[in-house]
Amino acid sequence: MARAGLTADRLTQAAAELADEVGFENVTVSALARHFGVKDASLYSHIRNAHDLRVRLAVLALAELADRVSDALAGRSGKDALVAFANAYRRYAHEHPGRYTATQMALDPDTAATSAAGKHAEMTRAILRGYDLWEPDQTDAVRFLHSTFHGYVSLERAGAFHSHPRGVEASWLRALDALDSLLRAWPS
Amino acid sequence: MARAGLTADRLTQAAAELADEVGFENVTVSALARHFGVKDASLYSHIRNAHDLRVRLAVLALAELADRVSDALAGRSGKDALVAFANAYRRYAHEHPGRYTATQMALDPDTAATSAAGKHAEMTRAILRGYDLWEPDQTDAVRFLHSTFHGYVSLERAGAFHSHPRGVEASWLRALDALDSLLRAWPS
DNA sequence: TAGGCTTGCCTAGAGGTCCTAGGCAAATGA
DNA sequence: TCATTTGCCTAGGACCTCTAGGCAAGCCTA
Fold it and tell me: What is the ipTM of this complex?
């Protein structure tokens, strides 16, 4: 029998695709094994357990998201940067729902430090260079921005905005306007 | 043998307590059956399946949260109302993490309409009475508020704010100030 | 190129969760 | 009191997780 050539990285990559297809919570060791035409026991020499697999997936997604956002941010500042960041963030969540869900996993502090999780805050901070904000307002604003982006995207995906006819797109644009004017006049 | 006296409501209530103890994702039919000293098959005459159980839990949590928030809102307006709403929302999430997670479940439109999910938007709208906002700005603002509250609370719980020493409490208060001033001068 | 070593995927199997079908006994009420 | 309903049971299948141990493919070294 030819070997399937599994590695932790290939498994993680396949898990990411699987997540987007069937949802993060359905990313299972057996499903992944089926995908490679392999017995599920075979995966346990590459990943420790199902949780480990999901953590790897989360780390992958965080890195991808950070890349996207970082690209979007390049060469922009002020409201331009804010809008580019926000749209890149939201687009990633829509294009890769399973991966995006993965980014919300609670990682242990060690993994979080190693992963791109910290890069997010750093990049959000980069947006603020176009505004006149200094510590500790900067941290407060970073948390505010992150909260609003994540909150909007996750409520949108959960269908929380379907009850009202007002377009989700229009509200999003207004939210970005609101954030911009808020950052311009951050209450101190 | 004496009967355990199970009903869908008792199961849902117990599931809610279980969720807060062990996390929403660990609310399982078998765990619930163990809690009542009963075989898991016995629960299936009261609930359709595991998903049905979680939906009932979500509906319960949505109703509880709506009650809390509604109480907090009583007799207040303007920033007072905003702060009371936000704090009640956040407190519920902290006191009942499992239930709060349940409120984020994607409910089918039918269930969502019947449940208290719609009541949230309505109550958030009540906050805005103290501010000078009319449609469609009102809907945009409701979505914005909801996003920020949910985003903040869920990132906080996921540990996303631990990387920085700045107090989570302080940032929260500043976020409320920011929302207040944003609503006062909602960009149109 | 023959031997040994490492490593990848295997089989076997235990334990957990979800759920259905069908049975018996407790509660209800005529 | 006896029939009906209702509640919890046993049995069992399907799927997921994970461990232990085995065999053979591919890699080294001589």
Answer: 0.88
